[in-house]
Amino acid sequence: MRPALYWAALALAPWSAGCDCMGGGALAELVGRDGTVERNGPGRWQRAAVGDEFALGDAVRTGPRSGARLQLDEGAGLRLQENTVVRFIKGLGSRSRMRLGVDTGAAQIEAGDDDLWIETDLGLARIERGSRVALRTDPEQRHFEVLVGSAELEQAGAATISLRAGQHAEVALAATASAGPASPGTSPAAPTDPGASAAGATAAPAAGPQPGLPRGEAAVLPTGPAHADLSIAAGESPTIHDPSAPTAVRVRFASACPGAGVVELVGRARGSDGVQGAGSAVLVLGPGTWGYRVRCIVGGAPEAESRASGAIVVRRDAGSAPLARRVAHNVLDSDGRSYTVLYQNLLPRLTIRWADAPLVSGFTLHLESQGGGAGKVVRTMAASHSFASGDVHEGRYSFWFEAGDGSRSRRTSLRLGFDNAAPAAYLREVAGGAGGGARVSGVVEEGWSATIGGVPLPLDEQNRFVADLAPSGDDRAIAVRIAKPGRGVHYYVRQATAQ
Fold this sequence. Notes:
This protein is 2% helix and 48% strand. It is mainly β. The strands form seven sheets. Strands 2, 3, 4, 5, 6, 7, 8, 9, 10, 13, 14, 17 and 18 form a 13-stranded antiparallel β-sheet that branches. Strands 20, 22, 23, 25, 26, 27, 38, 39, 41 and 42 form a ten-stranded mixed β-sheet that branches. It starts with a helix and ends with a strand.
């Protein structure tokens, strides 16, 4: 059972809030370990103990089936997965005194109560307070993925990339073959990264993180294919669920550009990043996250200013995972730490307790909203109280107990947020439909709409639908659009039956 449990135990432990317990030269402190955890020593690696501090030039590594948890000096947290090596390197800029280098394996960084500026192997990152990102290095690429919240990546000579939960950026470690024109339905090679180098060689500064470079599974063509699987409006930032990805996506920009225009992927290699068209252009995208912008062509050349921009997430899945229907239950201790609770479809049930409360009768629980909303004051006989699903809404809170003898628990922080990576719909294809379409059934979450080609799909009292669907307009696939204001847009793609 150990391989399944060692990482979960470390991952569930929250970070201390605002703790500044380290020495002046320390950047990190080991606060949790499981299995083999070592630090660099004179000429060899040696066992690392809880309480060990790490300064510039130090490194920490984990062995197989092992994990480590460190507290950073900015009040943030760092988790190492198994077989991971992380080095603490002097930062090059003024906004972060440290660069975190992940030589091998994977690590997660979680910001505390303030935004965290930290240099990474992909550039300078600003991680929004309460957000969590993952850094991973494999033989081919370095990866930066936002797991919770949002972050920005900056690198000299490249545009800043804004990423939300579920989005990622990658930089290749080895050069790939340059892309040539490809026909629809193929999986051409990705454009060469001019800043990439062979593994182990000394690399010049890269041209910037490339959003979602999917290892040869996508291309941007000088003139895109004539047909697309689905169409989106310029400026839209959807998540596409397509079991047959790469996906041909038509970006319609006629309302922004009266004539011709070009759709460009942010951060792509020069000379191969534009798809031209009149009123629209088609991108062929593999799994990953793709930032894009639209520029109008005037006088035979693109304008300097972009007219629309967005990010497209492509996932190779069928959207057939059943939606969660049970309310999650989270237990929080009033211990001075910072908690982040994400829910998928239903607001969770929350139990707040004071584990080491005095043996007195009568307590008052204070739940204070940090956003100016209404708080809650609950009087209870025990040092514990449960809020039902929906009693506590999204937002940031502080909570603490007061005992009848005047003593108080530690003030504790809570961020309750929606997990925008959670599925919004569950679809399945029942059978072939008329006219080359398909009969598709599905269910969407409460408050979400389902449309195809702008036409709403009728939902029953349980938010279910069954319909004979066909491709919309010039599209060659069936794309059900699931949307909710403030929650995002998802497209669930099904290939149409050949006529």
